[in-house]
Specification:
InterPro entries: AAA+_ATPase (IPR003593), AAA_assoc_2 (IPR032423), AAA_ATPase_RarA/MGS1/WRNIP1 (IPR051314), ATPase_AAA_core (IPR003959), DNA_pol3_clamp-load_cplx_C (IPR008921), MgsA_C (IPR021886), P-loop_NTPase (IPR027417). Pfam families: AAA (PF00004), AAA_assoc_2 (PF16193), MgsA_C (PF12002). It comes from Arthrobacter mangrovi. This is ATPase AAA. This protein folds into four domains: 138 residues, 3-Layer(aba) Sandwich (Rossmann fold), CATH 3.40.50.300; 86 residues, Helicase, Ruva Protein, domain 3 (Orthogonal Bundle), CATH 1.10.8; 88 residues, Zinc Finger, Delta Prime, domain 3 (Up-down Bundle); 69 residues, no CATH class. The strands form two sheets. It has a six-stranded mixed beta sheet. Strands 7-8 form a two-stranded parallel ribbon. The longest helix has 19 residues. Helix 4 links the parallel strand 3 and strand 4. The chain is built from 19 helices and eight strands. 46% of the residues lie in helices and 9% in strands. It is an alpha/beta fold and 467 residues long.
């Protein structure tokens, strides 16, 4: 259910004959190349330089401090696509002085496992002065009760929690846990990052130890196949090397074996099968899906929907993205799009898959073909910006609650005009705070239903504001 180590794992002894699946002359199975090449320090990490600057929270954690300084959070949420280094960063942090590494997977672990880790961590801290680094993979799969079980250990610093997720923690992690953690966003690796990683793996004693050479075309193909995912790139490299070795015989006899383009192409199926079924390119495909619906390309939208579902993506995740798109990109241009999206999400919960793809497709078609407006989205963003800037303090006296004892003595409700007593049930009076009078947050664009709303809104504002 969980594994623990004292910071070092999968140590590689550097034998040149030690390759995937045991390899020629290995005498025993080897860890995958992606595991063997896991960085041992932050200086070996490829990519994510925006998180690794001197004095950054991650460097402080790796050095044995807390993520936010002496009084700051000691736990971190790592949010990013697969293969960008979430597990790697957790292992590097665990190598700090006086630390023990414990790993849990939200897919298999339960509340009992979490509590057992917390109990052991408290004992390790009090009796052995050892800090436990708890790496929790896919925390978004934990329900509220399971996440709540983490709170005592995080709040009392029994553990340094490193939680990884491919979903937005704002929607998938409970607020108390999120507020006690530092949220760090990982970016997809660039082609240059992947190329540097593959070339390092070819030469490094922990990797292929110089037993192969990569033809430029093969390197380019492997970088493209990786699509920003370090694990995928290293797994494809290992498979391609295996194909080249099988053709050349023992890699120990005649110097480095050349991995050519055809070897990389033969290895593609093996590498892609291993990762695509686990939901690779999660963020790229999701982004293309949302942008295709926003761009009104119904055919591309259905394609990306099919790719996500065929890759095993959680249909509830897809449904949530559709709901967000209905509100953000269609908005009041077609208010029924949100109703369709919510109904589709509920239907998926009721009927499950594979039939659930039908209702998801209907919702996608509705949103992709609907008129578009982000006026409501822009409106709430502008309102939030004003609130965060300190604008709009207080509430006009005539709008304040006057139902409790003593309220009328304070003038609450005095001068309030009951809308239903006025023509068309619209009263002329001030509603916003003084410093926001005349501020127009919602500005319809005239597409779809907003054409009529725009004209009506002009009339409403003139009556309410007396203009």
């Amino acid at each position: 259910m969980f594994s623990a180590a004292a910071g070092d794992e999968d140590e590689y002894d550097g034998g040149a004959g030690d390759f995937a699946d045991g390899g020629a002359g290995s005498g025993r199975p080897r860890s995958p190349l992606a595991v063997r090449m896991r960085p041992r320090s932050l200086d070996e990490v490829v990519g994510q330089q925006h998180l690794l600057q001197p004095g950054s929270p991650l460097r402080m954690l790796a050095a044995g401090g807390s993520a936010g300084g002496p009084a700051g959070p000691s736990s971190v949420m790592l949010w990013g696509p697969p293969g960008t280094g979430k597990t790697t960063l957790a292992h590097v942090i665990a190598r700090g002085p006086g630390r023990k590494f414990v790993e849990l997977s939200a897919i298999t672990a339960g509340v009992k496992d979490v509590r057992r880790v917390m109990d052991d961590a408290l004992t390790a801290r009090d009796l052995h002065s050892t800090t436990t680094v708890l790496f929790l993979d896919e925390i978004h799969r934990f329900n509220k009760a399971q996440q709540d079980a983490l709170l005592p250990g995080v709040e009392n610093r029994w553990v340094v929690l490193i939680a990884a997720t491919t979903e937005n923690p704002s929607f998938s992690v409970v607020s108390p846990l999120l507020s006690r953690s530092l949220l760090l966003t990982l970016k997809p690796l660039t082609a240059g990052d992947i190329e540097a990683l593959l070339l390092r793996a070819v030469e490094d004693e922990r990797g292929l130890a110089g037993t192969v050479e990569l033809a430029p075309e093969a390197l380019e193909h492997l970088v493209r196949l990786a699509a920003g995912d370090a694990r995928r790139g290293l797994t494809a490299l290992e498979a391609a090397a295996g194909v080249a070795w099988s053709e050349a015989g023992s890699p120990d006899t005649a110097g480095p074996v050349l991995v050519e383009l055809e070897h990389a192409e033969q290895a593609v199926d093996r590498a892609a099968l291993r990762y695509d079924r686990a939901g690779d390119q999660h963020y790229d495909v999701t982004s293309a899906f949302i942008k295709s619906m926003r761009g009104s390309d119904v055919d591309a939208s259905l394609h990306y929907l099919a790719r996500m579902l065929e890759a095993g993506e959680d249909p509830r995740f897809v449904a949530r993205r559709i709901i967000i798109s209905a509100a953000e990109d269609v908005g009041m241009a077609d208010p029924t799009a949100l109703q369709t999206a919510v109904a589709a999400a509920q239907a998926v919960q009721l009927i499950g898959m594979p039939e659930g793809r039908l209702v998801l497709a209907e919702a996608v078609v509705h949103i992709a073909t609907a008129p578009k407006s982000n006026a409501a989205y822009n409106g709430i963003n502008a309102a939030v910006a004003d609130v965060r800037a300190g604008r709009g303090q207080g509430v006009p006296t005539h709008l304040r609650d006057s139902h409790y004892p003593g309220a009328k003595q304070l003038g609450h409700g005095k001068g309030y005009v009951y809308s239903h007593d006025e023509p068309h049930a619209i009263a002329r009076q001030q509603y916003p705070p003084d410093d926001l009078v005349g501020r127009d947050y919602y500005q319809p664009n005239g597409n779809g239903a907003e054409r009529e709303i725009s004209a009506r809104l002009d009339r409403l504002r003139k009556i309410i504001r007396g203009k």
